[in-house]
Amino acid sequence: MRFPKAGWTHKNVTSQVHLTNIAPTILDVLKIPNELEFDGRSLIPTLEENEEPIQKPAFASLYKNNRTLLGVIYKNFKLIWNSPHWIDGVERIPAQKEVYDLQNDPDENTNLINDSLQVAATLENFLDSLKQTKKSWRKKLNPQAKQKLKSLGYIK
């Protein structure tokens, strides 16, 4: 983010931040009172006082070609979960998991799934909570909203 004339020229935040931090940060810069509850928080304390942002997991999902990929990044680790899928309708590939140490392996060349079981379990717990959250909000959607989201490819 760039803030002209704000005094943070060339200031880098090297820790993980989230898109959910953008709105509270902009409100903070503009000195607009925040009466809303955001998942994120302003990054101004990080920029001014070198305060570390609160560490929360970041989630990603992709649905393409009848496959679901889910990801979670927490601290310096990333878990990628590939859903089970079929190749040419003949061969079934089971779900696959990958864990990477982003600090020591930023190009994600070495899958640590069998070497970092505790890290994998922590990340899988975050992912399971995401899956449960997605299931609960789907139940709350009315039929028209569900159909619209399906037609746009957001849900199955």
Topology overview:
Blueprint: H1 22-29, H2 44-49, E1 58-64, E2 67-74, E3 77-82, E4 85-87, E5 91-93, E6 96-101, H3 117-140, H4 143-151
Antiparallel strand pairs: 1-2, 2-3, 3-6, 4-5
Could you walk me through the main structural features you see in this protein, from its secondary elements to its overall organization?
Strand 2 and strand 3 form a beta hairpin. It contains four helices and six strands. The longest helix is centred in the C-terminal third of the chain and has 24 residues, at 117-140. The protein is of the alpha+beta class and 156 residues long. The protein has helices at residues 22-29, 44-49, 117-140, 143-151, and strands at 58-64, 67-74, 77-82, 85-87, 91-93, 96-101.
Provide a brief overview of the structure.
This protein has 156 residues and is α+β, with helices and mostly antiparallel strands.
Q: Secondary-structure element sequence?
A: HHEEEEEEHH
**What's the architecture of the largest domain in CATH terms?**
2-Layer Sandwich
Average pLDDT score = 81
Given the helix and strand composition, which structural class is it? alpha+beta
C-alpha Rg, in Å?
19 Å
CATH level 1 class label of the largest domain: Alpha Beta
Helix content: 25-40%
Instruction: Tell me the β content.
Output: 15-25%
* Largest sheet strand order: 1-2-3-6
Total separate domains: 2
CATH fold-level topology of the largest domain: Arylsulfatase, C-terminal domain
What spatial form do the alpha-carbon principal axes imply?
globular
> Distance between termini?
35 Å
The major beta sheet can be summarized as: 4 strands, antiparallel
- How would you name the oligomeric state of the polypeptide chains in this document? single chain
Total count of helical runs of at least 4 residues: 4
Low-confidence stretches: none
The tally of strands reads: 6
